[in-house]
């Protein structure tokens, strides 16, 4: 999106494309045709739609403009599988994606194959615009990786309405482990630079790299755990107005939130519904599926606060990108947060920062300019990636963003504090 | 439901059961697994759910209470596939039926086979309660036939949200035919008897047979046609408050009704979406997919009124049950209203009558008493059956009922008038 | 509305008009300007609006068409104070009546005086259309009496949101009285005539008088009391699905109904908010402020049913019109149901009958034809009048109608039974 | 709120209190009792409620804790007139304030007098906690001034639903003036300090004063005018998705926004409803009653952006506090934006900044800590004050905040740009 300093070579682009497409296929492999139809809310999309939309993206932004004789298997797919790009034409109602039974699974797989073949052919050609194409393929792959994360979280949400509590991935009980003691690490702050510097792929909203001033702060060595969260519950945290933003309390009361999404209590034990079916809540694992409102209330209850995104970036940017993420190629990973002190992976961590343009931000011209820019209101940035984030799209500057009431992503938190 | 005077013999029961189950299978045969998942509104259910729920009915009301060693393939199906029988235990949320991807299509077919085998075994036995069982099987088959009608109308509604306008049954264009001239036939009324007399199967709400007094009236020889309806549209009928019930006008304005459900105009021609895909509106065929509010406004515009259900029954009860209905066994019929002057079949005809208990009505004890009785408020009776109604469940005393705002059934109307 | 056989003389018309207008003034007298602004829901209107709308009715339907030089104090009042007569022109949004602070109280009183003077002048003239005018004045007075009932019930609803529980009329505690034992009186039914015969004033919907056939039935000698109702509550009636219409149960659960509107429990005693402020529930008085859904469920719980309107009319039409009604002239009456066995007054009694046109019903031409006809769907008839109904508008054929979920009127019930 | 460096002397506190209370009285003076009841949406409150709530504030936070024998005229007022302070006890539903007809206008005036007398007595005493009391009185007066602004904007909203378009203040047509040419002034930015330094009164959220880094920027010399806005309208700005945040476009379409709130077109001229009744839109005056979404879309259409709050503060903090504001004492001012290039007054200017805590922000202990802190999510900061803002509460560091969809305040905008 931002013109990378060193674009991918054709071979690199092909390899990335192949790995990425294989991962989508691997994610869909365990599912029945019926499973791929689930749409449980407007925010979520069916698996079949994700598979088609990520394919449309390559077709719309690469094949159609650059391959004169390119023919889509069905011209109406552009209407069905455009998500929100107004400059790419009209599109199907977002909340009705679950009502598109046709094209069916095989037709979508054929669509994928058709676009993959066409793109492979294109990448094999020596063309003047080869670098541009490689850049767009890279963007398309990162786009597909974002949808891989959505695919599994949307699927979990969809399955959660089935009283049979279906299993997506083998359950494998977690070993009981010792917890990581909570510690706060100090940072001096000062006038620092954050944001992406343009080396390698990044989304437009990660730049420009720019100066910002930070007061001294402390940040926790690990995310808040389920054990911590149960302490909040047992202390009456959900019902104590002093901890809550007014709007958060109103949502919590209207939705009758008493615990994270997918939890229930059974004979005194907390259980949760996961991609591996029902599981007892793992006390030392990071809490997941909490809203910003809950995270913010927890932090206040704990005598702390959420970090800003700049504080988070500064604290962890030198930490190598490794952890409990979705694997490469067809390795779909653990798909659940694991006990430990990881930063990258496990759970996205809510920050106190509004999703706002960095100083000097300028989205690209045309439909791709809609990728991030038009979401810059009322959303909060999360940092760190989750167990559903493909490893190769993770970066220290990566900003994901959601509304403060949303809980269905792999969302948790990490505490921070002012230095008195 | 009402104890029939002459119960079915075991062989008759088996034959009815076999025919009925075959028809459900025939209805589902053209559908992909994805198609069977569609649930487009709370009023409608997925095809897969209909297939399972009609099976659960036999299991719940016959096998479980009467076959001591009967084992369900999955005890949780009782929760998933109970519709609204509170006395048969708790049940899954009605508006979340489209989120039950598992059990999948094959599991539901296995469930059907399992119950069919168990029931066949039971029917083959000579038992003291053989007549009761035969009566319950007959009820279960009529119940399944009701769901066959819902299955196709729910499916049509579900498919209608797909911009690809999918075809369920081969399109076969209609031949252009001459219309049937409108004529009103006079009836004297007086003190008459209506309702079912107990000979053969009927639902509880069709009886008791009872006296009612009718003033002289006239009733049309044919349903209102699409040609008639276009006259109403072109005369500004949808926008003229004088024709409308206040509540009807409010709904029409809120929903922006300008024509029957599924219609649109294209180059000056009216088109409609049907189970045979998009079709030009057939001018001489009965109008279908209009609400009670619209039917009532049309009648007032036409200087007429809707008949009461007693008027309808009296006028047509001697007409043999034949017409454009769903066929026997696996014959699913035309699935669209056809030009002509039929009473049975084509379209259900809205009556002016509230769905109310007949004098002396008493529902059976237990969960089956919930079949009709608890719906007796705010719904309107329709008479005559439709092209989606299995022929062998049709009777002159048959009362179906829907809310005045509903349009997704095969609903039309026939005019009546007072004799001055 | 129906042309009366013997129209009022001018003097009778003036006397009725004077009595009626005086009663409205008496009802408004205890209220502050702020009180007259309350609009607590779309179904209810502010007192100030009632005072103006009943005035507009005389202006719109008598003065404007019949007095060539009549000048309204403000032409825009026609827009503000038309309720729902589409043929009388556009009108202000019904749910925004509480936002019309101007014209203020004095301006509305001036408007009333202006129209009263103009009408008195008109009535004093000898005119060819004198009988028509007398008939319209009579209609206008009955219309105003209907609004007098709404005025007090809307006011009660509006005041009920004030935590100070304001008193409208002096509290006067009720004496404790003995209850009236419940008895069922038998009626033979048969082919009977009901409806208004045209002698004296009646609304269009009360006729034509017509034949109907009734099976033998029994009807209770008194309305259901608060003591009876507490029995229903204590027996778990609100939570037992077997007693309820499905739609009723859904509403009861959504609204969390556990008792009649305005009730609460305090130290083991039931209290209720009334026009006389908070009061302990009077055990022997008729229960009031229950919906049709609740009334119907109560009747089923009690092994009975609600009477039809024909059954009610037949049973009580020979009983003289007397009882706990709103008085004449400025006598506003008790304004609460009183212990006893009255039929006329105390509480309106829900019937099992849909509000439907009688056979041969034909509303008058023009805007006055909208008076009743356009409400004939989804509403239920109530019979008997209430403590808020002016005595002189009560008749045995009087049909009032409300939606089954509504509770803010003085609504109660009386039981009936089939004769086995 | 923040402990001021030099607290008010008792005489200063009394003078401020007297001026402030007089202004509230002056604002209410032209209103009828009915006018003071208007509540047109949950966000707005009736004038009568504002008068009582601002009184309760002094009672709750000064008199009750510090005057042992203080007696409220009615203990239940604490429930009625607490707005949102959970730590000050339960409170009446916010959206039901318009249903509190009693206490009436006179009772509220008596309540005001009672508290004023009690407070005057307290201020006259020499007490150890005199400085604290003076500080709380100052806070209470600033609180009342905030409510004075709400009082007039809520009133305008309430009156706007009256088709008679009532006049609050004499209309006085505006003279036609020449416009101010648009110019952008450059600022270097760099590492700067913003926020309140503690000298004189300020709300907690205005501090701590802290460093922030700004890139070079330009900011307009005047707000966007109605003439500018009509250019946006005429260029199709409301319908062009490219200018809009996705969420903003969805709101604009749902609410059918085609122009600022209160505007309509009549014979080719734009009119608007104001506190001075209907007025032609003054072309050179600042546009008012636009949401953040609209302001943001306008700025993008204009090739600019909204300033951040830091940019705004830095640009204008040396400009003396003078302009078209609400006057002192009983001078209620112009109550409409005036042509010109003012910063303070006329219209609040939307900034691009989320309402977030400044680094190191810590709200006071107890209920007063709820004053601002619990609103810090999803709201946007506005700067500059409006024609409805009392002059003596204005400061360069003042942050007001509203939701991006809100339009009923005196909200406009000023453009900014990056320096390329
Ligand atoms: Fe996408
Ligand atoms: Fe069923
Ligand atoms: Fe009226
Ligand atoms: Fe306040």
TrEMBL record, chains A, B, C, D:
Pfam families attached to this UniProt entry: DinB_2, FGE-sulfatase
Limits of the Sulfatase-modifying factor enzyme-like domain: 188-318, 344-417
Biological processes annotated in GO: ergothioneine biosynthetic process
Associated pathway: Amino-acid biosynthesis; ergothioneine biosynthesis
Protein name (Swiss-Prot/TrEMBL): Ergothioneine biosynthesis protein EgtB
Gene3D superfamilies, alphabetized: paralog of FGE (formylglycine-generating enzyme) (3.90.1580.10)
Classification via InterPro entries: CTDL_fold, DinB-like, EgtB, Sulfatase_Mod_Factor_Kinase, SUMF_dom, SUMF_sf
């Amino acid at each position: 999106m931002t013109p990378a300093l060193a674009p991918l070579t054709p071979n690199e682009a092909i390899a990335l494309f192949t790995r990425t497409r294989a991962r989508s296929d691997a994610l869909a492999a365990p599912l029945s045709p019926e499973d791929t139809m689930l749409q449980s809310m407007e925010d979520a999309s069916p698996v079949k739609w994700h598979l088609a939309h990520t394919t449309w993206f390559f077709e719309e932004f690469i094949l159609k403009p650059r391959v004169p004789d390119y023919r889509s298997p069905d011209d109406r797919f552009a209407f069905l599988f455009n998500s929100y790009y107004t400059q790419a034409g009209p599109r199907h109602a977002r909340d009705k994606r679950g009502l598109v039974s046709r094209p069916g699974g095989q037709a979508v797989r054929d669509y994928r194959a058709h676009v993959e073949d066409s793109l492979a052919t294109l990448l094999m050609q020596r063309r003047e615009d080869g670098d541009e194409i490689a850049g767009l393929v890279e963007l398309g792959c990162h786009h597909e990786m974002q949808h891989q994360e959505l695919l599994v979280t949307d699927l979990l949400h969809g399955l959660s309405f089935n009283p049979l509590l279906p299993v997506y991935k083998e359950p494998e009980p977690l070993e009981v482990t010792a917890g990581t003691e909570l510690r706060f690490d100090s940072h001096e702050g000062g006038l620092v630079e954050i944001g992406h510097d343009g080396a390698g792929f990044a989304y437009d909203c990660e730049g420009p790299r720019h100066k910002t001033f930070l007061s001294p702060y402390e940040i926790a060595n690990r995310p808040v755990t389920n054990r911590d969260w149960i302490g909040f519950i047992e202390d009456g945290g959900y019902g104590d107005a002093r901890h809550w933003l007014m709007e958060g309390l109103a949502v919590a009361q209207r939705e009758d939130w008493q615990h994270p999404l997918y939890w229930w209590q059974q004979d005194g034990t907390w259980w949760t519904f996961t991609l591996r079916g029902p599981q007892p809540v793992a006390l030392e694992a990071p809490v997941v599926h909490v809203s910003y409102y809950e995270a913010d209330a927890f932090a206040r209850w704990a005598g702390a606060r959420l970090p800003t995104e700049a504080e988070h970036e500064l604290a962890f940017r030198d930490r190598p990108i490794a952890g409990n993420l979705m694997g490469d190629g067809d390795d779909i990973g653990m798909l659940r947060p694991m006990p430990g002190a990881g930063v990258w992976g496990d759970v996205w961590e809510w920050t106190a920062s509004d999703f706002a343009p960095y100083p000097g931000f300028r989205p690209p011209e045309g439909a791709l300019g809609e990728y991030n820019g038009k979401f810059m209101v009322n959303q909060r940035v999360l940092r760190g990636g989750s167990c559903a984030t493909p490893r190769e799209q993770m970066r220290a500057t990566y900003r994901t963003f959601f509304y403060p009431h949303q809980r269905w992503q792999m969302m948790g938190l990490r505490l921070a504090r002012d230095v008195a």
